[in-house]
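Bench notes, afternoon.
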Amino acid sequence: MPAAGKVPDVYDRASELKAFDESEAGVKGLVDSGVSMVPQMFIRPPDKSGTSNVRFNFPVIDLHGMEDDPIRRKHMVEAVREASETLGFFTVVNHGIPESVLEEMMEGTRRFYEQDNEVKKEFYTRDQTREVIYNSNFDLYTSKAANWRDTLYCLLAPRPLDPQQLPATCRDVLMEYKEEIMRLGHKLLELMSEALGLNRNHLKDMDCAEGLAMVCHYYPACPQPELTMGTTNHSDSDFLTILLQDQIGGLQVLHQDQWVDVLPMPGALVINIGDLMQLITNDRFKSVEHRVLANQRGPRVSVACFFSTSHLPSSKIYEPIKELLSEENPPKYRGTTVRDYVLYYRSKGLDGTSALPHFML
């Protein structure tokens, strides 16, 4: 691999990527080897959007009393509607998942990455059809610059996954957390259905919660965070994302052409609208760009749960919901399967542009 931070006279990016990939050690392997400068394959041009210095408060929605207090529920529905239509992001508290489970999920993620490299390598693959995948940068060979992050991807639904396929270091908590997240996802989809003026089961009956992928990210401390990114700006390809993050921070959302921080809150979960939700709501709900900064502090750990059947074969077509359309609001998107959307999204990579325009009428 070329000397860190130095551009050789003839930079051979392909060889650098290949050497990094074949090490099967990820970004953590680079950091463990003692790199003091960011290798060229990670260096990216500065982002043109500004960073807001104003502290922006994302909506915090308290889900306590959701099932048995109609007045509180009405307020929740209104708060979800406003956040989904404008920001595409909000935070939930009193969501029903015990704090002990959240903490164990984070610890399980750390245990996976911090175990012996030879054990981790058993899961290292670039085969995106696998249900359990460990690697660094799914778009490593197509992106202009790699992200300072390693990833464990587990497709947990709709097909039941044999727990023995999961890493032993986090197997039990992954299965427990999956059940908790599915319950919460169903509750959130009910609130979103009501926020759209539909029957509370509408989005669930469309199978928006049929699939679930859990993605455990590990962002090692970065020696030159200004030169790279933890995750490039992107929107999510799913219906709905539920994010658990530690207290280091770094998540930012693009709001009015300014990057604003989503500050960590102990015990809270961050919710965001995905591209497929924007498509079926005909732009009523917004899937917005977000990113994760690299940081000299670390490692940062996060667990993102994506409601989507991902690459699995499916004939079900998703298109704008007919009840939301009118002469004044005609459909903006053509129908697509989740698989076709996800495969296009992955082929494009995290290039800072949305996949949605490709599906517009």
